[in-house]
Each structure stands twice: as C-alpha cells, then as structure tokens.
C-alpha cells in the first residue's frame, strides 16, 4: 500500500473547492464565498457605528436576545412560529394557481416545516420531568383536574418519544405505522388543552373570589397583581382554544385548511414565546 508523501488530504489554503481560498469559477461562486465574510463586516460596521453613537460596545438588545434564545422553551416556541407559518404558506399556496411565483418554493417550505417539527421533537426528550412531581402533589391533594391534565400531558410526551423511536427505526410496531401512532397521540394533547383551559377558568374564578376579600380590595398593588394574573390566564385560554383547533386538524380528527390552522399556530406560539421574552 502506497503511503502519501503529502500530509494534507485536501489543500487547506489554496487550490481546492473546500480550501480557505478556492479557485473562483464564476461571479456567483465568488458571491457565495463572500456571503459569510460580508455579513461579518456588515455587523462589525454596525457595531462600530453604535460605539460612535453611544460611546459603548455593550448592547442591551443583543444581551436580551441572547438571554431569550438561550432558553430551550424560547427556541422551541420560536421554531414553532416558523413551523406553523410554513404550514400557513402551504395552505395558502394550495389556493393559488400553479403559475403563482411562490409555488416553486413549496417543496422548500415543506422541508423547513418538517425539519423544524423533528428538531423540536428531538429536543422534547425529558420535557415530562417537571410535570411528574406536580402530578404526585395533585394526586396527594385530591386535585383531580390538575392530576388529569398532568397525567395526560406526561402520557403524550412519553408517546411522543416513542413516535421518534418509531420514525428513526429503533422501534417497530405491528399494528401502527409511525404516522398512525403520532396522530393517535395528538388526541392526548388535544384533551390536555381542554383540561388546561379548564384550569385557567378555575384559576380566574379563584382570583376573582380573592379580590372580593376586604383585605385585598383595599390593596392596590395586590389588585394590580390579581388583574395581571387574570389577564395572563385569559391569554392562555385563547392559546389553548387555538391549539385545540390546531390539533383537531393535525391529528385529522377534523380536516380543515392549513392556511388558517397555520395562522392559529403562529398566534398561539407567539403567546408562548412572549412569556419567555
């Protein structure tokens, strides 16, 4: 067996398409190679301009954005916004003519939607863990509604992991294809949304009852916090209503149209993401 006298398998600096400085084949090739460095120079220029205007390189906005995207839940819900926007686009394109300019991008849109869905599902492993202690506490205290919601949610998450295992081929079921298992499992999260909606109604009722307490009625700060809690629960009720309808469609319990289901998904995901901001 001949031994190569050259240390590098491919030239690191020049002369290869994967080198730092590859031979330029065309203007388009040059533009492709310059995209990364040009973006870096652009953001550097903006940063230096910021320094001139504010006398500091520190950016509260960058720090806030980084803090946001450092949260797993924030990344998940942001990805879900894009995922459901892709669903909206696919539904919208289904009503457009074949000559509509965006039709050429339909396979790309579908690929983005699917890729995001699987990325989110992959990162969902372990998401059931925080709910297990709450389930135990709810059962111990006799809170049937809370216990039912947590039990169904945990079941959904475990079965979602099984779907992942089915999809990658680690598991195989005789009576279910991966997609059949997935659609059946979506019925669990659909019910979970109904129970979550009920929990919000119960919480609002409890808050309103406390507001009638003379001790709280005269406390402006306590009333303000109570009103904020009611508002938050009302937002979540809207969210659960939207996701309930979405899951009916995605599970194919009731087929609707992707364009408005997609918009519902964007809205419900925005509500979730905004809580992380």
TrEMBL record:
Domain of life from the UniProt record: Eukaryota
Principal location class: membrane
Regions crossing the membrane: none
GO terms of biological process kind: peroxisome fission
Compartments in which it is found: Peroxisome membrane
Keyword terms: Membrane, Peroxisome, Peroxisome biogenesis
Protein's UniProt keywords contain Membrane: yes
Cellular-component GO terms for this entry: peroxisomal membrane
InterPro entries: PEX11
Pfam families associated with the record: PEX11
Descriptive protein name: PEX11E protein
Gene for this chain: PEX11E
């Amino acid at each position: 067996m001949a031994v190569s006298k050259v240390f590098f398998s491919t030239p690191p600096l020049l002369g290869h398409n994967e080198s730092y400085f590859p031979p330029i084949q065309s203007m388009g090739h040059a533009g492709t190679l310059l995209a990364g460095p040009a973006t870096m120079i652009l953001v550097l220029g903006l940063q230096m301009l910021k320094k001139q205007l504010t006398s500091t390189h520190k950016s509260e906005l960058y720090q806030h954005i980084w803090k946001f995207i450092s949260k797993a839940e924030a990344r998940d819900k942001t990805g879900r916004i894009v995922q459901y926007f892709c669903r909206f686009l696919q539904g919208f394109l289904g009503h457009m003519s074949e000559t509509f300019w965006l039709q050429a991008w339909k396979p790309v849109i579908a690929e983005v939607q699917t890729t995001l869905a699987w990325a989110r599902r992959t990162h969902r492993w372990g998401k059931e863990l925080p709910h297990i202690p709450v389930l135990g506490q709810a059962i111990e205290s006799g809170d049937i509604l809370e216990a039912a919601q947590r039990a169904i949610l945990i079941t959904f998450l475990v079965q979602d992991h099984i779907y992942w295992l089915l999809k990658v081929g680690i598991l195989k079921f005789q009576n279910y294809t991966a997609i059949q298992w997935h659609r059946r499992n979506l019925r669990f999260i659909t019910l979970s949304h109904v129970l979550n909606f009920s929990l919000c109604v119960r919480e609002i009722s409890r808050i309103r009852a406390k507001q009638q307490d003379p001790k709280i009625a005269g406390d402006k700060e306590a009333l303000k916090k109570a009103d904020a809690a009611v508002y938050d629960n009302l937002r979540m009720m809207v969210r659960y209503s939207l996701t309930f309808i979405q899951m009916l469609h995605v599970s194919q319990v009731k087929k609707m149209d992707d364009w408005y289901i997609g918009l519902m998904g964007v809205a419900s995901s925005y509500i979730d993401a905004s809580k992380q901001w």
